[in-house]
Write a structure and sequence with these properties.
By secondary structure, the chain is of the alpha+beta class. The chain is 18% helix and 30% strand. It is built from eight helices and 33 strands. The strands form eight sheets. It has a nine-stranded parallel beta sheet, covered by helices on one side. It has a six-stranded antiparallel beta sheet with strand order 3-2-5-10-7-8, with no helix packed on it. The chain has a four-stranded antiparallel beta sheet with strand order 1-12-6-9, with no helix packed on it. The longest helix has 18 residues. It is globular and about 75 Å long. 48% of the residues are buried. The structure holds alpha-D-galactopyranuronic acid. Alpha-D-galactopyranuronic acid binds next to loops.
């Protein structure tokens, strides 16, 4: 089998990774990445893919355009496709000096087809712009509380495409107990002639045949798994479905699990579920967003070791390889499309709305088969208390419901009392920082606010008629500077954070119909390069229970004890 970045795998195709050293140039003078004479540019050095160019000493902190170039080889007459697993902030792709595609969906997986030619050696150029520009890239704003890096964050693959190329096989779980699943085979385009597929689940005796008629691009087939084993955090059993035609094949991985909500509870396989976890940014002080496999594995190990079973992938579509690891280790995930504090003007900006919808659809298409992803979200802390925002919350939720019924829908609100969009969510996710962003700045160590506020929030939801929806504390936390220890246990000390999170976790886990907590945040990460940083010592968001190098603060052991026993 080809070695591939993440599931799905395409064993019959030739797939090669384009990771490695590319020719590179950086320019602050290019005005428009979609209008380049790529052959005339002077590439000055080598830079690795994947990586963030503005994390390297030569370009650190700069805003401009990084242009990457390399040769690729495709047989004459052969169709091919590039798969981008995620980059930012926006990009344009050229082959042989011709613009093929450009997009402004930071972090999204993206496929770009390369038309066949009669030469085998082709010039591939990718221009990546990291300048904030609301017109060109409305999804990322300078004011976001995490650093907007420039570069190719995740791997790129080159697929040589057969004529009747398979896009994906989506696996919908019909009945976990009986092990019934529905496989939908999606082609890249309608087939020019009828095509037969063989379907086989690894480890199962039976093989199935399905026929796709000429002109069609989707076919469905129901299968039953003998002696079905469920997927859960304690026993993350995975199956692979192999779909093969005479020209192409795909291997998709999935798990048998059912997630639902009833009477204010979140249920996994019919049993009440308590989410204990963290918000995690893909972030490292030296690597930026381009974390690599080692860091992903380390992060999951640290969260598990703390007794966590849950990660909110704040605030963008996740690295597919990371989600593969979550599937394998039984980690539960809240995945969301990109957003941070969207304001009124975003909701009347057509391009912003279209891009959000597009990124959300892509997220579904990409993550459909991950059993770990139990919640889908969008628009973190948008103005969901304003009438003008309702249309987009409604639309996003209906898009998700139409595409995918295997996960619950939510979005994190910071306007808990005045929110107008709860009806569109299955789980009500609330970001709240009582005792940190305090109501009364004159109170010393206002820790007693924490428990009171969490109870008040639950009562408020009940009084508004949302008693049947589970509540999730999707963010709560306090800043601590690693190594700052203080007998007075004051703000910014590791002691204050530890005391704070003890309160927060104890109350959240004890609260009726609160399905869990995602601490803000897993580890410290770089943020604003503007004067907003005055609220953020070191220009880092310091609410990590580990610092940016994953060194635990006091709070780590405190949280571990509460997660283990419900007390300390
Ligand atoms: C918000 C936001 C986070 C982070 C946090 C904080 O809730 O969603 O991304 O900025 O506040 O640290 O204040």
């Amino acid at each position: 089998m080809n070695s591939q970045y993440s599931f799905p795998h395409y064993p019959k195709r030739s797939v090669c990774s384009l990771d490695g050293l590319w020719s590179f140039l950086f320019s602050e003078n290019i005005t428009d990445i979609t209008d380049l004479e790529t052959a005339a540019l002077e590439y000055t050095e080598g830079l690795p893919v994947p990586s963030c160019f503005d994390a390297f000493p030569a370009y650190v902190g700069k805003r401009g355009v990084g242009v990457y170039k390399r040769k690729i080889h495709i047989l004459a007459g052969q169709q091919a496709m590039l798969v981008f697993h995620g980059l930012g902030l926006y990009a344009a792709v050229y082959v042989d000096n011709v613009l093929l595609h450009h997009w402004a969906l930071p972090y999204s997986r993206q496929e770009v087809e390369i038309p066949a030619a009669d030469t085998t050696e082709r010039d591939l150029v990718i221009a990546v712009d990291n300048r904030f520009d609301r017109e060109r890239c409305p999804l990322f704003e300078q004011y976001y509380d995490f650093y907007g890096y420039g570069g190719i964050y995740r791997s790129i693959e080159l697929h040589r495409l057969p004529e009747k190329a398979i896009h994906r096989a989506r696996i919908r779980i019909l009945d976990t107990k009986r092990g019934s699943v529905r496989a939908s085979i999606h082609m890249k385009r309608p087939v020019s002639e009828g095509t037969a597929f063989t379907l086989r689940i690894q480890g199962q005796a039976s093989e199935h045949q399905v026929w796709l008629s000429r002109g069609e691009d989707i076919v469905e087939y129901d299968l039953d798994i003998d002696e079905p084993k469920l997927w859960s955090p304690d026993s993350p059993h995975l199956y692979t479905l192999h779909v093969e035609s005479d020209e192409d094949s795909v291997v998709e991985r999935f798990g048998l699990r059912e997630i639902s909500c009833r009477d204010g509870l979140l249920l996994l396989n019919g049993e009440p579920l308590t989410l204990k976890g963290v918000n995690r940014h893909e972030a490292h002080p030296q690597l930026g967003v381009a974390l690599g496999l080692q860091q992903s594995v380390e992060d999951i190990q640290i969260i598990r070791e703390m007794g966590g079973n849950f990660i909110r992938g704040s605030h963008y579509p996740q690295d597919q390889r990371f989600l593969d690891l979550c599937d394998e280790t039984g980690m539960l995930v809240f995945e969301e499309s990109l957003g941070w504090g969207q304001k009124s003007y975003h909701f009347s900006d057509e391009r912003f709305c279209e891009d959000t919808l597009e990124q959300t659809r892509l997220m579904v298409d990409t993550s459909f088969n991950h059993p770990s992803v139990i919640l889908y979200g969008f628009l973190n802390e948008g103005v969901s208390h304003e009438e003008g925002s309702v249309h987009l919350y409604r639309k996003l939720s209906s898009v998700l419901r139409a595409e995918d019924t295997q996960r619950m829908i939510t979005y994190a609100t910071m306007y808990a009392d005045a929110d107008l969009c709860y009806e569109y969510a299955d789980v009500i996710s609330i970001n709240s920082y009582p005792g940190w962003y305090a109501k009364d700045n004159e109170v010393l160590r206002p820790l007693s606010e924490v428990g009171k506020e969490l109870h008040r929030l639950r009562e408020m939801l009940d009084s508004k008629g949302y008693g049947d929806k589970p509540m999730l504390i999707s963010e709560i936390g306090a800043g601590a500077i690693y190594g700052f220890r203080d007998r007075m246990r004051q703000h910014w000390s590791e002691e204050y954070q530890s005391d704070y999170l003890k309160e927060a976790c104890l109350h959240a886990l004890d609260l009726d119909r609160c399905c869990g907590i995602a601490i803000w945040q897993y580890c410290d990460c770089r943020t604003y390069s503007t004067a907003y940083a005055l609220m953020r010592p070191r220009a880092f968001n310091n609410k990590g229970i580990l610092d940016e190098y994953r060194r635990p603060k006091l709070a780590y052991d405190t949280v571990k004890a509460v997660f283990a026993q419900g007390s300390v």
